[in-house]
Amino acid sequence: MKRIYHFLPLSQRIWIIGLVVFWALFLFGGFLFGSPDDAYSHRMPTWTRMASSCALVVAGWSWFVFSRKQQVNRYALLISLGMTFGFLGDLFLASVLPAPNRVLAGIASFAVGHTFYILSIVGFGNRFKLNDPAARWGMLGVWWLIGLAGWFFVVFRGQNPTLVHWVALPYALLLASTAGLGSALARQDRRFVPLALGGALFLLSDLILAGDMFSDLFFRLIGDVVWLTYGPAQMLIVYSIGTAWKKAG
Q1: What per-residue confidence (pLDDT) applies to 38?
Q2: What does the alpha-carbon distance between residue 176 and residue 155 come to, in Å, rounded to a whole number?
Q3: Which of 33, 23, 86 is closest to 59 using CA atoms?
Q4: What's the half-sphere exposure (Cβ side, CA atoms, 13 Å) at 156?
Q5: What tens digit of pLDDT does each residue of 48-85 get?
Q6: How do residues 131-166 score in pLDDT, each as one tens digit?
Q7: Dist CA 97 CA 105 (whole Å)
């Protein structure tokens, strides 16, 4: 444990590591020990899924509190805000929170969350000289193409487009922007590869969910596959605060 987050006092180190352990227990424990629903789309109970996201919200704000006198504090704040809005999106999509249209409410919440993620990555990159234009715009271009292709083939093609279908396009590009900017940091500093992977997994998770919602995509345990890509994505993004802290020195 001494080598993990060595820049933190022992009590804070134990707390941060303990939260990711709780996150894993809720996420993977819910999958392993939950009961299948009638359609067998997922095993994870709603409460374990929500608890896993809640653990990441607590982790994000813990990073923010612990880094309050560090250069990485703004990055931690924006990532924590992003995760908080992601958790709100989870609550809307799971119908835990009421909304006239739970899908639009969920999309709006995640969109705000990813706006904070983007601001955090761009701001950090600019401040610590990880803003090479070729890496940044090159990776953004690649991921925008991936997001556009995913939206077209999964959401749009063969459909009678409604408002939600069109709203899904800028949303897909927003998620692709997080993946692209994270990849740009990783191109310049390999320590940010987990952040880039988190952005990619988030987009993949969303495309699977979109396939379920818009294209009648279904396979056994599809709901769990969504969460087993989405949950690690959020964890990697939140815990990139530790990577940013080490980079900032």
Answers
A1: 59
A2: 15
A3: 23
A4: 13
A5: 999 999 999 999 999 999 999 999 999 999 999 999 99
A6: 999 999 999 999 999 999 999 999 988 788 888 889
A7: 10
Residue 33 in tokens: 């020990």
Residue 17: both structure tokens together: 């590591």
Single out the residue of 135, 137, 147, 134 nearest to residue 200, CA to CA: 147
- List CB contacts of 44: < 8 A, sequence separation 6 or more: 27, 30, 31, 34, 223, 224, 227
pTM, to two decimals: 0.95
Are 177 and 206 a contacting pair, CB within 8 Å? no
Domain boundaries, the chain: 10-248
CB–CB of 239/205 below 8 Å? no
Q: In whole angstroms, what is the distance from residue 6 CA to residue 72 CA?
A: 16
Contacting residues for 88 by C-beta, under 8 A, at least 6 apart: 97, 109, 113
Q: What is the dihedral of CA 95, 100, 103, 109, to 10 degrees?
A: -90
Residue 141 CA, distance from chain mean position: 20
Place of tokens 């949303």: 171
CA distance 133 to 90: 34
Check the CA dihedral 104-105-106-112 and report its sign.
Answer: positive
Q: Which of 200, 196, 198, 176 is nearest to 184 (CA)?
A: 196
Query: pLDDT tier at 39 (50, 70, 90 boundaries)?
Result: low
Q: What is the pLDDT of residues 6-18, one digit of tens each?
A: 999 999 999 999 9
At position 104, the amino acid (one-letter code) is L
